[in-house]
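Intended use. Records like the one below are meant for learning the mapping from a protein sequence to its folded structure. Do not use them to infer anything beyond what is encoded.
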Amino acid sequence: MRPAAETAVLREYRHLLRTGPVDWQETAHRHALTSLGSAARTQLLGEVRRLLLVGTRLRPDDVHEVARLLVLAERHRPRILLDGMRPDLLRLLARAVVASPAGRTLAVGRDVWDGTDPLPPVAHESSVPGGVGWGGEWGTGVVSTDLGAAFYGSVPPRRRA
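Structure written out for the chain above:
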């Protein structure tokens, strides 16, 4: 659910997330988290925990790990943070990331970027129609392999009586 009118800072932040290399994105987020202060980092970490269900052992001072979580979450599931985070925290984070030295470096090409987001991940479907996976009953597509055929040709030899 994209807001009707995306602010310039959010568009710049989205550009950075979609086009920048991961290590530069992490650097920009580390600079931003360091500049925000402990109270804002505590709120951001709470949002990360709520949205991603990870980071329970992290502290607000673990800037490197929180920055990595933010970047990898947006890489793995595009728009999970942009759509799920509280708007005030998102604006605060976006403003700090875009204003960071690495964020200013990643601004190249922003004027010609078409603004498209990557496609959402596709749910894995079963290779067996109606089999195991999201579409079928559990265990219906499981087929036991005949190891005897692999060792003895098509028919395993019979035992002597």
